[in-house]
Write a structure and sequence with these properties.
elongated; alpha+beta; single chain; 11 helices; four-stranded antiparallel beta sheet; 317 residues
Length: 317
């Protein structure tokens, strides 16, 4: 539905920009296939008025002109809708090129590349290559989850969604009804922030734990969307980044390098094991489970119990 509307708006904009004289509703209806398929005149009129208002909200200046016969026509003059020249210095062009490279593995790669080509056509200096490598390392945002694209569109269109979600401590997924706000990548994983209708509170979901298809719903949002959605801060607190205590674990030698990077103290135990003291905050149990049999929690007791519960849930699944 969103793609069909976007195509209809684009066709209407092209018609209004491409004419030298005002076009009547009748002429516009005959020129745009989606309008010809309208079931009735009333349906077409409602569709046309909504589209015209949407284009004006997007910034297109549409003039309404009445001819000598009293018939109303519409047009969008090019001189009224022409953007000022775009000027970018080398640093700004490099920033745009970097942003495009980041999305090369995502569905937005085509849009990012097309945007840079339009900037080049609009006057980007020929001696500036926005795709030029600016370092030995190139950023990438991998998008492997099938849920990414439907959730991205739902965030953009403000459409509620339904999906099955399996928490790390659960043996089976649960159905969640969510009003999606924003997607963000943190440490190689994608997360969705939104309003959980079933729990009546803000929640963050890891996309890799969404099972099955994401289904859209035609209803409107029931909760206000915050101006700033702190996805990364929320996930960081769950992952133990805001730790206020310490935990003692055993870790196999030559394993768990992310844990070693966080460790405040490391002691060799021999027999292929080391003892680490690491910061302990909310969500550390979920992180430790990811290392499987390479990690054994020694202290505190509640952390050990949480890790055991999560491992049992995984084993049952």
């Amino acid at each position: 539905m969103a793609i069909a509307k976007a195509e209809r708006l684009m066709n209407l904009a092209l018609c209004l920009l491409g004419t030298r004289r005002p076009l009547s509703k009748r002429e516009l209806r005959e020129s745009i296939e989606a309008y010809l398929e309208a079931s009735s005149d009333d349906s077409f009129n409602r569709m046309f008025e909504r589209d015209k208002d949407d284009l004006r909200e997007l910034g297109l200046v549409i003039e309404t002109v009445e001819n000598l016969d009293g018939e109303v026509g519409y047009l969008a003059r090019r001189d009224s809708n022409r953007l000022p020249p775009i000027t970018l210095d080398a640093e700004e062009a490099a920033a745009l090129g970097l942003a495009a490279k980041v999305w090369q593995q995502a569905r937005l790669a085509g849009a990012a590349s097309g945007a840079l080509q339009k900037l080049r056509a609009a006057g980007l200096p020929e001696d500036v290559d926005p795709y030029e490598a600016h370092g030995a390392l190139e950023p990438r945002i991998p998008v492997h989850e099938a849920a990414f694209e439907p959730l991205m569109l739902a965030c953009r269109d403000r459409r509620p969604v339904v999906f099955d979600y399996r928490k790390a401590t659960a043996a089976h997924p649960e159905t969640r009804h969510v009003e999606p706000w924003a997607l963000e990548c943190w440490r190689g994983h994608w997360y969705l922030a939104g309003w959980d209708r079933d729990r009546g509170a803000e929640r963050v979901f890891r996309l890799s734990r969404i099972t099955g298809k994401v289904r859209s719903r035609g209803s409107s949002f029931t909760a206000p969307v915050p101006d700033v959605v702190t996805v990364r801060e929320t996930v960081a607190s769950w992952a133990g980044e805001t730790a206020d205590r310490s935990a003692l674990i055993r870790l196999r030698t030559d394993a768990g390098y992310p844990l070693r990077a966080k460790a405040t103290e490391v002691r060799e135990l021999g027999d292929g094991w080391d003892e680490l003291e690491i910061p302990y905050g909310h969500g550390l149990d979920a992180w430790l489970v990811e290392f499987g049999p390479d990690v054994v929690v020694l202290e505190p007791a509640e952390l050990r119990a949480d890790v055991v519960d999560r491992l049992r849930a995984v084993a049952k699944g």
